[in-house]
Request: fold
Amino acid sequence: QVQVAESGGGSVQAGGSLKLSCTVSGLSFTYYAMGWFRQAPSREREAVSCISSKHNELYEDSVKGRFTISRDNAKNTVYLQLNSLKPEDTAMYYCATGLPCGDVSLPTSATYWGQGTQVTVSS
Reply:
């Protein structure tokens, strides 16, 4: 069984930072692309970033220059560093795998999902 677990969310003021972590078990992590999605109430889920097995990175336009995705294959862990946070970044953030992360387009779905970690940014 594949397990995906996120952590690191919290409440911060605008301009602050958070670092999210996601640990995966039950698959050969090195060969899987990883992604971060977010969803606010009454809004569509959207991918914010993904990183391929070859360490190629993609970002949604609104987070470019502010968020950074990285992975540590030895720890089966992917990270999302969130800097210069804005109130519009407030959402439940989900880690996922079993997804395409190519050269152009962010993924729209995934096979395995975590339970989510809440990020709240106040003005």
